[in-house]
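Recap from last week: sequence in, structure out.
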Amino acid sequence: MQDFTALDGALLVDKPAGPTSHDVVDAIRRRFGIKKVGHCGTLDPNATGLLIIVLGRGTKLSERLMSDDKVYAGTIKFGESTDSHDADGQLMAARPVPPLTLARLNAVAESFIGDQLQTPPMVSAIKKAGVPLYKLARKGVEVEREARLIHLYQFRFTEYAEPLGTFQLACTKGTYVRKIAHDLGEKLGCGAHLTKLRRTASGKFDVAEATPLETLLNLSTAALEQRVLPFLKLVAA
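Predicted structure tokens:
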């Protein structure tokens, strides 16, 4: 059996706002000349936080790592709905925000806990006949999307100052947090969209253990190797 190298494994990256998850993969591949690089769970461009990058033979573990539960922190703006359900989208409607308190928000948020079927937003990377939905959305085309079973373990607001609410959310893989924000706004009758999102954990890995992307790209290959979680350690975990 071929021996594992120091670059067969996973990197914990703290993604900044701006680049796509694929941009991060490309940047690491080019900077260090690694042929096989992948990621475990897409973060939207303006989302930040933990992005698990798999290298070399570590890419064989991508599905396993991607299936882990996720934890997020973020901010929702009430009173405005967008077509993408986040701040990147076009404003679709503006409505008055009713009197809200932290207790009221958490009472409604509690109704989202548990299993639910979630229909992915049109502005997403899911493909229909090989075409990403967001490309169809840009052309004004809307297609039927299959609802997916997701589970929310926690959805709790920690601060509220009209019109912004700060929350924490724990969920299964494949959950669109911006869709949760949109659906919450509809339940409250005023509309809402996600303005900030940060992934703080994925499975047993925490963003506190991650290296900022800019720092990572300035490392030598030898220094990078010291930050790789070895393949055999990941398998045994």
